[in-house]
Amino acid sequence: MAAVDAKQYRMVIDGRLVDSASGETMDVVNPATNDVIATVPRASRQDVDRAVAAARAAFEGSWSRVSASKRNRLLMKLSDLIRDRIDEIAALETLNSGKAISSSGAEILGALEDLEFYAGSGTKLMGETIPAPYGLLYYTVRQPLGVAGQIIPWNYPFLMAMWKIAPALAAGNTLVLKPASLTPLTALLLGELCLEAGIPAGTVNIISGPGASVGSYLAGHPDVAKVAFTGETATGRLILQLAAQTMKRVTLELGGKSPNVVFADADLDDAVNGSLFAIFYNSGQSCEARSRLFVQQDVYERFVDRFASAAERIKVGDPFDPEMQVGAIISRSQLESIEGYIRLGIEEGARLVAGGKRPDDPSLGRGNFLLPTVLADVANAMRVAQEEIFGPVAVIIPFKDEAEVIRMANESIYGLAGTVWTRDLGRAHRVAGAIETGVIGINTFATAMPGLPFGGFKQSGIGRERGLETLKQYTELKSVLVNTSPRPVNPWNL
After folding, report:
1. Is the pTM of this model over 0.85?
2. Which residues participate in catalysis according to the annotation?
3. Which residue ranges form the domains of the chain, and what is each CATH number?
């Protein structure tokens, strides 16, 4: 892994590339080497104020009155610019996040699908006519909210930025987006591409800074009409409290401890391979990762052996090596947190059957690498089965029958995603319907696709991403009543 000269990036506020008002900066680190690769502005409340003011001026001045068809053309121009630079953006994403280059490329393509989905959706925002008495006309219209404050996590930096920016713009809003402090680079580049596409100054503003100060101030800002946040549940609770002060509209996509249910009649090859991808993709750093593996007792030992053996064959290493399937953990502190959970699981009585350590390859020693880890014989009440580890750790739990696995799957504060593996389609639909989760797959590891609403039950969030429901959540629904009667209006006979 070659060293990289650090580059200085700037924020995008009111159509210009700017430094922070204080001149302070933050270092950005490559998780695969822990070398500094860039510096970015360390925004303050003053920078939030000027970004929100720019967004509000743009909204009131022009953007909300730009036709949906013109917004469509601008977003498609943005899509063309991104498509021309996919390799560059994917490389920057891998450099900043530590994820495998093959994953970064696929995620940029996924972001383009989301952008193009929403580019054409603004023209589909329609109201309704409501049956009314003679002489009256009732109808509804959808109007953009105004300024959206958007805060995204470090696990999918470019993709999450697009999940937020595309629907907000398509619906006619302006925005201020704050990427995670650890991974701001591709979001800042995206802001520059928005300007290049011709999106008016002030419509898209990208600021970089600490979540505890800048993110919380943005979430509570009185001129922000909606806050959209993706991240951990504890922070989501704080965002909700801040937004409540001014009754902002809120979308929260939060944590998960998603169940992956394997029945004895499942195709075990598919179940093993699909389950591996569902937890170990992106080093397990996915909110929807199916980290609780419930396996029916009749095939439990056979599944555990095959799953553990396959996990040990996953290629972990240099994220820029196209042969690698899993890259680095985002930070040294996150790596140490995951290792703490592995030790805890063993102390709780789990059996370590794969991984559980850093790679032996000395060339990876400076980075934050961890082998895919499998803990078997886990009880559902253990902390490793209830708390979000957010790393490449699968816990395997045996179950007897359908009723028991539904009960155990639902014994969680989370309800984001899930998967059911079985050849019995009747049972597949029963279990999918009974598990308390916002998205569930049947005989597939996939859960998040463009156009399919994505979000959680319980403490996994509020609202949905990635579908037409998201577009509506960036609008207010207004009811209009019209008097069409030729008779004068005089209800009191005055």
Report:
1. yes
2. 253, 287
3. 7-254+460-479 (3.40.605.10), 259-442 (3.40.309.10)
